[in-house]
Structures are given as structure tokens and as C-alpha cells.
Amino acid sequence: MDSLDALLSRLFTLHRKTIELSLGRIERLLAALGSPERNLPPIIHVAGTNGKGSTIAFMRAILEAAGKRVHVYTSPHLVRFHERIRIGTEGGGRLVGDSELFAALTACETLNKGEPITFFEVTTAAAFKLFAEHPADYLLLEVGLGGRFDATNVISWPKLSIITPVSIDHPEFLGASVDKIAFEKAGIIKPGVPVIASFQDEAALAVLRRAALHASAPLTVGGQDFSAREENGRLIFEDVNGLLDLPLPRLPGRHQHQNAATAIAAIRYVEPGLAQDVYERGLAQADWPARLQNLTKGHVAALAPPGAEIWLDGGHNEDAGRALAQAIADIEDKAQRPLIVVCGTLASKDTAAFLRAFKGLAQEVLAVPVEADQYSKPASEVAAAANAVGLSAVACGSVELALRFLAAREWRVPPRILITGSLYLAGQVLALNGTLPE
């Protein structure tokens, strides 16, 4: 009998050579499964370039603080596939279990009958089957790639659509300009279904406005219809329903204030009248691994120089680089720690654009490969990209070797180490550290 790992490995080899964005394959499989996408709880559908996962994390925490059962579908996973599928339960959700995941994936593979299909499509179909089998109050559904032809876009009538900040990423599939990418993201907008657009580039916002107008979909825009600002160590949120004076989000970084604001605006729409303390508890409880995650214990932490800080983030595009650099610069630092960036990226990413924001902030970049990923950019190329934007860089064979390299030096002040450049790299670091997302 197959093991779950063997089944996932076999499915992962499906249709891998190119990504052909289309809905036909998953529609066929879902029909064979009995159309579970028609039996889902109210859906909040989330597209965008950056901030999708964090916005979903805030929404989940707020809804769960209100006593709601919340299904969650996100991608990619960091360490285990199970992270992609969270089943809503009383008192908080749980990651899908081995036996139920195996059963759902086996049913999808059997009913697909060897027809062409992608890994994301078949696993999305399995997720819909699982979500339809468990009652919940909401499904928070993250787009995998783009929006218009993403497998999640087979749903016909979400409760709400959200589009987080749009910027350049996956240009080989979505287009090389912000307006073209925004057009693909806007594909999740449905006739008459309200849309919340997070704080956007003007070019992206213009595209989203046209799409919403064409679909007669009411549009709420961050920075215009709702806002968030920090005052005296508090997050002040304001929209047409009034003001909320809240604690700063648990997730660090100024960019998370905007993600939290988008989440609050969404929940104020779907659950009007929630007490302020629900939002307070939600912001305090929200958790999203590998987003400026401070690693203080574990194998990776033990490899670093004594007293060093280690931060882990899966950012990988230009806008994420700017937000991350700003967040690192904002960390209070009386000791004036030198910043070392350990960076690994995929071959498809613009590494120089991602690292540019760290010029003048990072003392050095240690370039590493994203291990066990055939699409990894060689460490030498990552180092060359760092050099190209004025950063001193050294190529290392792995994150572990990079940390040992740093530990062998003498430090007047222990460094701050940021490991970043890819969610896949972040997942490998969490696995190496023994820190499994829950």
C-alpha cells in the first residue's frame, strides 16, 4: 500500500514541465468528485502578490477569537504538505491528518484516471473535498498563482474577494508589468461580490477599479476607505464604521500593519458588530511562520555565533525586499548589531531587485543554494546579484555552512542574521531547526 509521502511524490511529478493556467482540468476532476466546491462554507477569496498569507493569518485569528470555525487553504507549505489544509474546529483549527489527506488524494488520483492535471490542481480538488466534508463558518481561500486561471477560481460565489498589494512576481506566467499582473489578480472578482483592495500601486488600483466596475462589484480601497497608523505603540484602524484603538500586531514589521488593516476591513464587512476585544485578541494571537520569525532555540540557533539574533523570512521579490529591509531597520538596537543577510533564491527570481533595499543596511550577504530544489539559483549567482547592487557577498554551500562560517569569526557585537530569499529556503531552515509549523 502507498504511503502518504509516496502518493504526494507521485502527484508532484504530474504535468510539471510547464504551468498551463487553465480551469478545465480541475473542473473535470471536481465534477467526478461530485462538485464539492458547491458545498463549501462562505468563502473569503484572497489574491495578490505580497501579504496574502499574513492577511489570512490575521483574519483567521480574529474569526477564531469570535468563536468561528475557520477552514484555511494556503500555499506553498514550509515543511509538511499538511500546512496547506487547515480544518476548522471548535476552539481553533487543526492541520489535516495523514489518513484523511491520504484518502482524499487517493480519491482524486483514482477519479482523474491518468488525465493531464497539475499537482496544485489535484491537491486543491482534494482540499475542497475535505472542506466540504467538515462544517465550518468560513473558508479562507488563498490563490496559488495569479487569479483568473488559478485552480481556486472555480468557486462561483464567494462572500468577499480580497486583493493584497500587487507587484512584479512570476512575470513568466503573469506578465512583466504591474498592470498586467493586476489584470490576472482581478480575475477573482465576481459579479456583485464585494472586493477589498489593500494598499495598492496606482497602476494596479486603476486595473482593479475597472474590473470591479465591469462586474458591478462594490470596491473598498485601503488608504482611501480604510486606514491604519501607529500611534504611541498602538494600531489605530479607521473606516466608515468608526475607529478601533488596538495593540500592535503580533507579526513584526510596518508592512504587517497594512495586512492587519486589510484583515480588519474584511472582518468588519462579513461580521459587523464584533466587539473590540475580539480584534485585540486576534491581533495578539495571529501567527504566520517564516514572516520575520525570530529563531531563538533549535539546531539553527545553536549554529550561530553566541548571542546572535536570527530572523527568518520567506520574502522573495522587490517589494518584499523593501518591506523586509524597513522592518529590520526598525528593530530597536541599542547594541548596534551588524546585519548579515543569508540569502538563497530560486532561478526565476530577480535576486538583485530583492537585495537592493539592503544596501547600506547589511554588512555582508552570504549566498546559499535553496537545497534539494532543482529550480534553485546557484549560490555564486546569488552572490553576483548582491555584488551588482553594491553589497559585499560570499558564496556558501548551505545555510548550515554559512552559520558555521559566521560562528568561526570573532564578533565585538554578536550579529543580527537574516535568512531570506525564498519560502522554500525558509521551510528548509525550519526543518533543520526542528521547528514545525502547527
From TrEMBL:
Cofactor(s), names only, from the UniProt record: Mg(2+)
Alphabetized SUPFAM superfamilies for the sequence: MurD-like peptide ligases, catalytic domain, MurD-like peptide ligases, peptide-binding domain
One CC-aspect GO term: cytoplasm
Keyword set includes DNA damage: no
Where does the Mur ligase central domain lie?
46-266
Biological processes per GO annotation = folic acid biosynthetic process; tetrahydrofolate biosynthetic process
Which is one GO molecular function term here? Answer: tetrahydrofolylpolyglutamate synthase activity
Q: Which domain of life is it from?
A: Bacteria
Q: Does the keyword Magnesium apply?
A: yes
Q: Name one Pfam family in it.
A: Mur_ligase_C
- The enzyme's first-digit EC class, named in words, is ligase
Catalytic activity of the protein: (6S)-5,6,7,8-tetrahydrofolyl-(gamma-L-Glu)(n) + L-glutamate + ATP = (6S)-5,6,7,8-tetrahydrofolyl-(gamma-L-Glu)(n+1) + ADP + phosphate + H(+); (6R)-5,10-methylenetetrahydrofolyl-(gamma-L-Glu)(n) + L-glutamate + ATP = (6R)-5,10-methylenetetrahydrofolyl-(gamma-L-Glu)(n+1) + ADP + phosphate + H(+); 7,8-dihydropteroate + L-glutamate + ATP = 7,8-dihydrofolate + ADP + phosphate + H(+); 10-formyltetrahydrofolyl-(gamma-L-Glu)(n) + L-glutamate + ATP = 10-formyltetrahydrofolyl-(gamma-L-Glu)(n+1) + ADP + phosphate + H(+)
- EC code(s) of this entry: 6.3.2.12, 6.3.2.17
Key words of the record: ATP-binding, Folate biosynthesis, Ligase, Magnesium, Metal-binding, Nucleotide-binding
| Pathway the protein acts in | Cofactor biosynthesis; tetrahydrofolylpolyglutamate biosynthesis; Cofactor biosynthesis; tetrahydrofolate biosynthesis; 7,8-dihydrofolate from 2-amino-4-hydroxy-6-hydroxymethyl-7,8-dihydropteridine diphosphate and 4-aminobenzoate: step 2/2
Q: Where is the Mur ligase C-terminal domain?
A: 307-422
Task: Please describe what this protein does.
Answer: Functions in two distinct reactions of the de novo folate biosynthetic pathway. Catalyzes the addition of a glutamate residue to dihydropteroate (7,8-dihydropteroate or H2Pte) to form dihydrofolate (7,8-dihydrofolate monoglutamate or H2Pte-Glu). Also catalyzes successive additions of L-glutamate to tetrahydrofolate or 10-formyltetrahydrofolate or 5,10-methylenetetrahydrofolate, leading to folylpolyglutamate derivatives.
Regarding protein family, the annotation reads: Belongs to the folylpolyglutamate synthase family.
Name of this protein: Dihydrofolate synthase/folylpolyglutamate synthase
